[in-house]
Design brief:
Layout (H helix, E strand, L loop, with lengths): L13 E4 L4 E4 L2 H8 L5 E2 L24 H14 L2 H5 L2 H13 L6 E3 H6 L1 H11 L6 H12 L11 H14 L1 H16 L5 H7 L1 E2 L2 E2 L2 H14 L2 H16 L1 H9 L4 H11 L8 E3 L3 E3 L2 E3 L4 E4 L1 H4 L34 H18 L4 E2 L6 E2 L8 E3 L1 E3 L2
Parallel strand pairs: 2-10
Antiparallel strand pairs: 1-2, 3-7, 4-14, 5-6, 7-10, 8-9, 11-14, 12-13
Helix pairs in contact: 4-6, 4-16, 9-10, 9-11, 12-13, 12-14, 12-16, 14-16
Bound molecules: protoporphyrin IX containing FE.
């Protein structure tokens, strides 16, 4: 029950949380206003933590950059990470999904995350970048230390703990940085047909990315590019299982798969929240947020705002329009959204083909990711025959 209620709205769409010393935005219109105003709501959080944070990790980490530097880098990486690059992956994604499902063929029960929802996106992102997919145990470890231990980084921590989290994040990610530096250096010497090569070669106005930028951006893709899609796949199957009549509709009419995926993103938004710092005093929904404050735009809550969505607690696979903001909005809109959507559509269709009768198992409920920043299943046992 706790899991499904993560998107609950608060009394007022903009509230100061005195205990944690930060502002919580839960209204859809208000979250949208914050995300659409990147000059007053900054993504680089260092100004809220002036004396603690080693921000070297931020160079090239798009998600934490602002202004011209962000615009320029985003243009540069977009040149390498085009819609065509993503669309061309479709046959490979279908093939991989087929192979992963073949591996559990004939079993009465499967655990969806281990069988498909984790390996599929991580193999896809590894192949896209051009790092060995066989290193995926390593990638999993980095994600786990980031998000899945009790001391892990969480935007929902109080300010003191958050300072420690930020410092810790840099240390924790050192092995990943070193790993990627090695691969990037190799691509400079010997270019290949992969995204890492495109990144070391990409140019805007005659300028190339620095090594740090390449590595931090590749690291962002590696982390943000797989665990979120894992959550999307698991959550979509969980939504279908929890609303069996709706699942029947989708099974019978596959043209509903894309809208069902959007509805899953709305109901169980993988990133429950993102973060900003105010660059000046900002008025929002009648409240004034002072300059330099940490602000959490709660995507999951906004996606259940009854002022925006009819029947917000119902999974409607045909919901249209569905202006959810699970991929954010504006300058930082998720660069990987086309890839996540493509993987979602292919995987959900193939799952429905292979396992039309899949259901959760009484007495063996799913488990959920520990981090309150994330909304996703960790393990989802299914009976498939
Ligand atoms: C940004 C969600 C999959 C790469 C974002 C943001 C959100 C998000 C909410 C904006 C954060 C903010 O404004 O502070 C998701 C969800 C995914 C997903 C829900 C899956 C269901 C992916 C994938 C990739 C990716 C597959 C890469 C292959 C990125 C990057 C950014 C980003 C690079 C930063 C863009 C920028 O700051 O300009 N994502 N993401 N994401 N995402 Fe995703």
């Amino acid at each position: 029950a706790h899991f499904w209620l993560r998107g609950q709205t608060r009394e007022h769409p903009v509230e100061f949380d005195a205990e944690r010393g930060m502002w919580i935005i839960t209204g859809h219109a208000e979250v949208l206003a914050a995300l659409s105003d990147p000059t007053r709501f900054l993504s680089n959080l260092s100004s809220a933590f002036p004396d603690t944070v080693d921000m070297s990790f931020n160079e090239g980490n798009l998600i934490q950059m602002d202004g011209d530097a962000h615009r320029k880098l985003r243009r540069l990486v977009s040149n390498a990470f085009t819609p065509k690059v993503v669309a061309d992956l479709a046959p490979r994604i279908a093939e991989l999904t087929g192979e992963l499902l073949d591996a559990v063929d004939g079993q009465e029960e499967i655990e969806l995350v281990a069988a498909l929802a984790y390996p599929l996106p991580v193999i896809v992102i590894a192949e896209l970048l051009g790092v060995p997919a066989s290193d995926r145990e390593l990638f999993r470890q980095w994600v786990d230390v980031l998000f899945e231990n009790p001391q892990a980084f969480s935007l929902n921590d109080d300010q003191e703990k958050l300072k420690e989290d930020f410092a810790e994040q840099t240390t924790v990610l050192k092995p990943m940085t070193e790993y990627l530096i090695g691969h990037a250096a190799e691509r400079r010497r010997a270019p290949r047909q992969d995204l890492l090569t495109r990144l070391v070669q990409a140019e805007v106005d005659g300028q190339r990315l620095s090594d740090t930028e390449v590595v931090n951006f590749a690291g962002l893709l590696l982390v943000a590019g797989h665990i979120t899609t894992t959550m999307l796949l698991g959550n979509t199957v969980l939504c279908l299982d929890s609303f069996p009549d709706q699942a029947e509709r989708v099974r019978a009419d596959r043209s509903l798969v894309p809208t069902a995926i959007e509805e899953s993103l709305r109901m169980l938004s993988p990133f429950a929240t993102t973060a900003r710092v105010t660059a000046e005093d900002v008025e929002l929904a009648g409240r004034v947020i002072p300059e330099g404050q940490l602000v959490l735009p709660m995507l999951g809550a906004a996606n259940r705002d009854p002022r925006q969505f009819d029947r917000p607690q119902e999974f409607d696979p045909a919901r249209d329009p569905n202006p959810h903001i699970a991929f954010g909005r504006g300058a930082h809109f998720c660069l990987g959204a086309p890839l996540a959507r493509l993987e979602g559509r292919i995987a959900v269709n193939l799952l429905l083909d292979r396992f039309p009768a899949m259901r959760t198992i009484p007495g063996r409920p799913p488990t959920f990711m520990a981090s309150p920043d994330m909304t996703g299943v960790n393990a989802l046992p299914l009976r498939v025959t």
